[in-house]
């Protein structure tokens, strides 16, 4: 029976003891052994690649899951920022005389703003609140305008229009500021 007969089982085939001196005397056996070794090496390579692909897919899905958990609500958070801004502007626009007259309403709006900030913090959103006189940081601030203001240096914040916000380690929205363009003397 030929060695290439597909009906032949492993038990029926003559096994080669590669350690014996006469094992590879037959050139056909040597060729068959080389083919088997090449096939084994090819299958081992495919197996190792499949194992690496599976591990990479597991790591990628874990990273995607973490990112979705941390940053999945960023669109909703971005949409809520103008609500916070409007509430802050409403409180800031009330005169001292109006504060006494509308004290309860102002307190309600301020409490709502604090609660909104608490919810933001609970979900990893932190405000960026620059102060007048600080240096402009392009990583966290957006310059809405530049103006020469005596008594300041170029690049100093001269007005804060809106707070910025970070979502964990990502910028959700830069703080909107005015910057001094005073030339150095």
**What is the average per-residue confidence, as pLDDT, rounded to a whole number?**
86
Question: How many H/I helical runs?
Answer: 4
Order of helices and strands: HHHHEEEEEE
Helix content: 40-55%
Would you report the number of β strands? 6
**Under the CATH scheme, which architecture of the largest domain would be assigned?**
Roll
Strand ordering within the main sheet: 1-4-5
The major pleated sheet works out as:
3 strands, antiparallel
Q: Within the CATH hierarchy, at the fold level, what is the topology of the largest domain?
A: Nucleotide Exchange Factor Grpe, Chain A, domain 2
User: What would CATH call the homologous superfamily of the largest domain?
Assistant: Head domain of nucleotide exchange factor GrpE
What amount of the residues lies in strands? 15-25%
Give the distance, in angstroms, between the N- and C-terminal Cα atoms: 102 Å
Rg (CA only): 36 Å
CATH class of the largest domain, please? Mainly Beta
Give the domain tally: 2
The dominant shape is elongated
Which structural class fits the helix and strand makeup? alpha+beta
Low-confidence stretches: none
